[in-house]
Amino acid sequence: MSWLAWILLGLVAGLLAELVIPAPGGIIAATVFGMLGALVGGWLGTRLGLGTIKKFDLRAVGLAVLGAIVVIALTRLLFRMP
């Protein structure tokens, strides 16, 4: 995937993850959380046999959202955000 696709995937994943668990910051923070979530989700998906993130599809978005939720939850836990 190109860097532009990663940014778009991060934006989509970050915004969808914020529907589940609120994150600090605005749209840029959501994009960053989503991009980090895509990395974490891709890693977890590979380890659990759920697939990888190689192209922009529904599986990639799902893994990225799952990863973004994990990243947001860890961020809130580590920095004691409400």
Mind explaining what this structure looks like?
The chain has 82 residues and is mainly α. The protein contains three helices and no strands. It has helices at residues 3-20, 27-48, 58-78. Helix 1 packs across helix 2 (27-48) and helix 1 packs across helix 3 (58-78).
Structural class: mainly alpha
Assembly form of the protein? single chain
The percent of residues in helical segments reads: over 70%
* Separation, N- and C-terminal Cα atoms: 35 Å
| Strand element count | 0
Segments where pLDDT lies below 50 for 5+ residues? none
Summary of the model, kept short:
The protein is 74% helix and 0% strand. It has three helices and no strands.
Summary keywords:
82 residues; mainly alpha; 3 helices; 74% helix; 0% strand
Write the layout of secondary structure elements.
Blueprint: H1 3-20, H2 27-48, H3 58-78
